[in-house]
Amino acid sequence: MTNQNQYGEKIAEMSKTIFLYCMSKTHSRQEAEDLSQDILCELIKASGNIRDESAFYGFMWAVAGNVYKQWVRKQTNRKECELTEDIPIEDTLHEEEDTDIYLLRRELTLLSEKYRRATILYYVDKKSCLEIADILGISESMVKYLLFKARQIMKEGMTMERKLGTLSYNPITLNPMYNGSGPNRFWDFMQSKIRQNIVNACYNDTLTAEQISLETGIPLPYLEDDLRALWEKEILIKDGTHYKTNVLIITADCGEEIKRAAVPFQDKIADKIEAFLDEKLDAFKSIGFMGADFSENTLRWQLMTFVMTAITFYGTDIMETNNLEDYPVTAWGEHAYLWLVENSYLENHIFEFLHDDTEGGDSVHVVDYRPKPKGSHMDLYGNSRDKRIFCDIAHGKCEGFSEYDLEAVAELIRKGYVVKEDTFRVTTPVFTKVQYEEVVALVKTFVEEELGELLTALEQSAVKVLSEHTPKHLQSKVKGIASMDKMESAVCVPAGKLIERKVLSTAWHPLEMPTTYIVLHK
């Protein structure tokens, strides 16, 4: 075997060691592979010059060191785009400058606010360090530090490969869910798709602001206000420079698993509700509330409304005492459960609930049937004037309405809540407080005795699935959210089955509201 062949085998044996050496000296695997190939080529070419086998390893590391030094010089001599007094606009760029300017601007969008403001004031706005110190309320030496650090961060970032996350081109839509005392300010706060996708990005991973920017594809300057707002409202938790989500999300995959786990219970729930409506409709009418003479279909829907509410709040005393003190306190100060649901999970979410009190202590209850609405909770939600007038008419206080009040009456008539005969009349059942409590007792007995076991088993199945999809720091919220979220599987789907069976009809009576009622304080 010739010396050259002998050393060739040694070089092959040492190739892994050389690659690891290159990995320690470079920024990426690709650079390490290129550098190790250069070293191996030089070793092979120079192997004939080795006169003594014992000198091989010293010779190998000498060659490796020389090749690495040459590689470093090439990298240093490579034209780099540094911050100058002017950052050129696209029209003034030469083709060879275009990539570096793009990288420079990319890194500028990823700088945190304190570095970015100082950098822009100095290089773009042409402010002196002293002027910047005055604008930012910091010392001149701190300004110089920020500028130095910003240059360092951007220079390092320009050599990195930055990959945008899937949310940058495929954002998701999350629906804010709320269960508790009102008003529901969480709904309005989370309507922004940017906020929804920030929260989603941080759900399973703890991310810095820069990582969130890359994941969502949104430059950091446009994210900072939303990040701050989400943190202040406790939707995000901030740990140093990292953020993580503080509300539970039911993703599409999780939702599908919850739905599948609920299937064995839903026909049984529908069967028991159907039997209850048939058996207890006369008992319901005999309570003697105003509207007990409405059509049978309207009364079935009204009784079903109580059943749906009792199922949704099964395990709490909300229907009896309206006491929500055991619910978590939100950053807005209300007692409520907050969570987010990916759109596809809500395809069977066919009802919306409203329980809203007037200043006089009366309450309005609405359950919307979304596929074929007759009335909507949004008709009255947050509208104190219309609620007051609606309840005044229910009290029989129809005299002395001002022109302003009559405009509201006309709107209630147009929407179907009021009719004008000899006087004004509401088209919904009206309960005294005592009558309301009788209906609640009737329905709660049924739910606890006939549905309790099914609802508990269904909730446990949801807890199991939800636990498997929920990050560790949110596990304490799983049981509460599973309980609040069962409206989808324990109310909407069984009710849909009753509509399919014609137990409940959506051929509404023209002068009756089927799922709205009033409870009078006195």
Using brief descriptors, characterize the structure shown:
522 residues; Rna Polymerase Sigma Factor, Chain: A; Arc Repressor Mutant, subunit A; 4-stranded mixed β-sheet; 3-stranded mixed β-sheet; 20 helices
Short description:
By secondary structure, the chain is of the alpha+beta class. It contains 20 helices and twelve strands.
CA-CA gap between termini: 110 Å
Q: What percent of residues adopt helix (DSSP H or I)?
A: 55-70%
Q: Total strand count, please? A: 12
The share of residues in extended strands comes to 5-15%
Total helix count?
20
Rg to the nearest angstrom? 34 Å
Tell me the count of domains: 4
Q: Name the assembly state.
A: single chain
Principal-axis shape equals elongated
Average pLDDT taken over every residue: 83
Biggest sheet features: 4 strands, mixed
Low-confidence sequence ranges: 88-97, 317-322
* Biggest sheet strand line-up: 7-8-12-11
Query: Helix/strand/pairing class, anyone?
Result: alpha+beta
